[in-house]
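Form 7-S
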Amino acid sequence: MKNYFKEHKRFLVQVAILCFLIIVVLAAGSNTQNTYSEPVSHTDSILEQIAIENHLILSDTSLLSTYSIPIFDLPEIEVRYKPTILIRSAASTTKAQLIGFLIANNPKLDLDFVQHIVETYISDCAVEGINHDIAISQMCLETGFLRFNGSVKANQFNFCGLGATGKSMGSTFGSMEDGVRAHIQHLKAYASHEPITTKLVDTRFAFVKRGIAPDIHSLAGTWATDQNYGYKMEAMIRLLTKSVRKTEILANGV
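Output:
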């Protein structure tokens, strides 16, 4: 027997090693199945429940597994940066939408005049690179939707309160077109260092520190002394957006 083991020692060792490797491979396969089948199903179930409890609609709840903490239990934090709207940005409203917005908020306006002033704002804003949504919203804010109930009167064609203070009625322009152009030029002076494209009609252009207010919230304390002026502008723009959306819903039935 001893002679047999001596003669076949190498062969028996090889057989033993082969059996050991087979056992290791089978065990690894078993662990792999346990690792990647049951836990995944269980995890997805938990994530779906979290989504339901937090009233979320997720197309792929497994994306939440990339977070190592329960993100829905995080405390609220103070937002120190408030998104704003650049004065030199793309507008989103059409001529018809703007006309509807003005008429809806001041039904006494003459339709032909409204069409003309809206066209003028859109064209002049395009030339100077100004967002016409902002310019017209500011005009609505400053004039009360062209009611002119403040110190500036309609015959001044001053649509943005240029030069108007408690002691002064502000600038007067010879036509509606000049008044709109002065408004756009003044906005560009605040928003940019670039030269104006059209002939200068803004009587207060030279007094502006160029580029001091690139966005609507920067107009507070610069264009107007009112520190809430930016928020008032934002509210007017939101009113415009809401009006446009409401019109679309009524038109499309959605």
